[in-house]
């Protein structure tokens, strides 16, 4: 009898453990832990494609740094370029504006703002735009949509202390609302 009780408890524990493994956040939750999750901000759904440190000497990364404001210095020994590549889609029935205001916040509360890139010189640069119903950013058949990241770029200059002050959080501030949606970033 005791052996059956132990087996029953072991089976019940295994069921609970397996149920926890399959749990996930709602795909349109207000926050996302990492790449692949979706967040809704305003009337638009955003997905983090990838985020990573950029190396200005690498062939692929060099193109992401095109279109910097004139006179922008290279990051110093205690700074780095960090790219956040986003995809967005308007699943609504009406046109919706994508966010044009973003920041990254570290665990100490330090805020970083994106560096403005000239979209006429950088085909990966994120720019706020109105999406028609089922419209996406990056738009289909664009360099950014076919590129290795399949997302539009938000470029940040971070302090190297960000490695110690992880996790970093991307804050999305959609137009016309005070709602802020967040995505946890890898670094």
How would you explain this protein's 3D organization?
With 187 residues, the chain is of the alpha+beta class. The chain is globular. The chain has helices spanning 2-21, 59-64, 143-146, and strands at 31-32, 38-41, 44-54, 79-89, 96-97, 101-105, 111-112, 130-131, 136-137, 152-159, 168-173, 181-185. A 5-stranded mixed beta sheet has the order 1-12-11-6-7, with no helix packed on it. The termini are far apart. The longest helix has 20 residues, at 2-21.
Outline the secondary-structure elements.
Blueprint (H helix, E strand, L loop, with lengths): L1 H20 L9 E2 L5 E4 L2 E11 L4 H6 L14 E11 L6 E2 L3 E5 L5 E2 L17 E2 L4 E2 L5 H4 L5 E8 L8 E6 L7 E5 L2
Parallel strand pairs: 1-12
Antiparallel strand pairs: 2-3, 3-4, 4-9, 4-10, 5-8, 6-7, 6-11, 11-12
Briefly say what this structure is.
Helices cover 16% and strands 32% of the residues. The protein is α+β, with helices and mostly antiparallel strands.
